[in-house]
Every structure is written in structure tokens, then in C-alpha cells.
Design a protein that fits this description.
With 198 residues, this protein is α+β, with helices and mostly antiparallel strands. Helices cover 27% and strands 23% of the residues. A hairpin with a 2-residue loop joins strand 2 and strand 3.
Length: 198
């Protein structure tokens, strides 16, 4: 199946398979896999870092808490699919170890510490970066961003309106209050992704 996804990925990355979009990658579900399309060079860097982190975590016996990356090139990354956490009020939220205790796997705190201290990881508690495994426990699905890339590359490009920032507001088209992709302070287009704004 992986070989087929690699060879025919454009055929699979269609609206019917779309499951989410971030500032640098766009995701499509195909059976038990996710194809992440790099829509910005930082997305490619994130995918490469996910492979590196997964290998390190496998050596330490923690790979079961991370979505396995199977393939990365300049255009795409292919990863194991995990059911995403549901949004709260149409937006992601910060994982709270007490409020969300039923989701927390046994080694969670140790993993967070390792990702922070050894891998310069960023945005470790955003619910949008997790899926749920078959036991209903948190599994990292988006774990490639580093603090240094965020500060030195992502922020300047977001401030310049090149990379979108996420803003919680009312979509001017459908009227729903949800996360909108906004390109700098001058961006007045308040449509959500589903109403046509990428």
C-alpha cells in the first residue's frame, strides 16, 4: 500500500480524503494512512524531524506513542493514521493532564520532558498535534516543529503574511465561529477553509 501511495499520491489527495490543514502541511486520510502534503518548505523540515524523532523514540521504547512516518520526500510525508481529538467550540485546546487524564498514557510526562529538553520541540500540548490510539490514549501525530524553526523561520514569515496564523473568529461566509487562516495583519478575508480560503 505504501508504494501505491507514494506513486499515486496526487490521486489520493482529493477533497473527499481531506482531514486537515495547518500552516505548512495539508493532510489526507487514505485507509490507515495519512498523506501530509508540504505546502511550505517548513512543512518538509517538520516531516524530516518527525522521522528523526521517531527513530530516537523507537530506540528508547516510546515509539508506540508516536505516529509512525513511513516515507518523506520534498512533496509529501506518509504516516500512520490516528483518530484526531475532537475540537472544543470549533477550536483546538491545550492538553490538561488533570482534565484529560483519561487520555494520558503512562509515559506522557517523560516524553514531554524528552521532547522539550533533547529535541527543542515546540507546541507540545496543543490538542491538534495528537490522535488517539486503539486504547484511547494520546499519540503524537504532528511532532516535527522545533522552537528554533518556529522562532527564526515561522514567526518572521507569519508576520510578513507568507505563512498563515490561526485566529478564532466568525467566518464571513458561513457565519460559524471557528479557526481561520489569517495571512498577516492586513488580511481582511475572514472566510474559513471550508468556505474556500486556503
Amino acid at each position: 500500500m505504501i508504494h501505491e501511495l507514494i506513486a499515486r499520491w496526487k490521486e489520493f489527495c482529493i477533497p473527499e480524503n481531506f482531514i486537515g490543514i495547518g500552516s505548512t502541511r495539508k493532510a489526507y486520510k487514505v485507509n490507515d494512512y495519512v498523506i501530509k502534503v508540504h505546502i511550505h518548505p517548513i512543512g518538509y523540515k517538520q516531516s524530516i524531524r518527525e522521522v528523526e524523532k521517531y527513530v530516537h523514540m523507537k530506540e528508547r521504547g516510546y515509539n508506540h506513542l508516536f505516529a509512525q512516518p513511513f516515507y518523506v520526500n520534498n512533496s509529501i510525508s506518509i504516516q500512520r493514521f490516528y483518530r484526531p481529538l475532537e475540537l472544543e467550540n470549533n477550536q483546538s485546546y491545550e492538553i490538561d493532564t488533570q482534565k484529560h487524564a483519561n487520555y494520558i498514557p503512562e509515559a506522557y510526562h517523560k516524553i514531554i520532558q524528552l521532547l522539550d529538553s533533547e529535541f527543542d520541540s515546540f507546541d507540545l500540548k496543543d490538542s491538534g498535534n495528537y490522535g488517539l490510539n486503539s486504547n484511547g490514549k494520546l499519540t503524537f501525530i504532528d511532532y516535527g516543529m522545533s522552537k528554533s524553526v518556529y522562532e527564526k523561520e515561522w514567526i518572521p514569515q507569519a508576520e510578513a503574511g507568507i505563512i498563515p496564523q490561526i485566529e478564532f473568529d466568525i467566518c464571513s461566509n458561513c457565519g460559524d465561529e471557528k479557526e481561520l487562516r489569517m495571512y498577516g495583519d492586513q488580511d481582511m478575508d475572514k472566510r474559513c477553509y471550508h468556505c474556500g480560503k486556503e
